[in-house]
């Protein structure tokens, strides 16, 4: 299957999942409960958590690279 189609489907799922509380249909329908078993609050905090982890890892890698390059210049 094409990657673009998979990414579009995941994005559509995420958007619907994050918009459920706005229309107050999160727990009203059993089909919705089956399709979206985790609370929509998780959909809001998930990108924040992933961004924090990404920035932390990027900063750590850049810091290690800067320290290593500085040590090589001194030797």
Structural overview:
By secondary structure, this protein is mainly alpha-helical. The protein has one domain. It is 83% helix and 0% strand. It has three helices and no strands. It has helices at residues 3-23, 30-35, 40-74. The longest helix is centred in the last third of the chain and has 35 residues, at 40-74. It is elongated and about 65 Å long. The N and C termini lie far apart (52 Å).
Give the key terms.
3 helices; single chain; enzyme regulator activity; 83% helix; DPM2; mainly alpha; membrane; 75 residues; transmembrane helix; elongated
List the helices and strands and how they pair.
Elements lengths: L2 H21 L6 H6 L4 H35 L1
Strand content: under 5%
Shape: elongated
Tell how many strands the DSSP assignment holds.
0
Overall mean pLDDT stands at 86
Structural class estimated from helices and strands = mainly alpha
What is the H/E order?
HHH
Q: Uncertain spans, ≥5 residues at pLDDT below 50? A: none
DSSP helix fraction? over 70%
Largest sheet: none
Distance between the termini: 52 Å
Q: Note the total helix count.
A: 3
The gyration radius over C-alpha positions equals 20 Å
Count of domains: 1
InterPro entries: DPM2
GO cellular component, one term: endoplasmic reticulum
Pfam family, one: DPM2
Keywords: Membrane, Transmembrane, Transmembrane helix
């Amino acid at each position: 299957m094409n990657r673009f189609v998979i990414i579009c489907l995941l994005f559509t799922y995420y958007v619907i999942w994050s918009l459920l509380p706005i229309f107050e249909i999160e727990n009203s329908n059993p089909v919705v409960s089956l399709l979206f078993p985790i609370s929509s609050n998780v959909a809001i905090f998930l990108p924040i958590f992933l961004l924090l982890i990404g920035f932390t890892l990027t900063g750590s890698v850049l810091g290690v690279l800067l320290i290593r390059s500085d040590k090589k210049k001194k030797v």
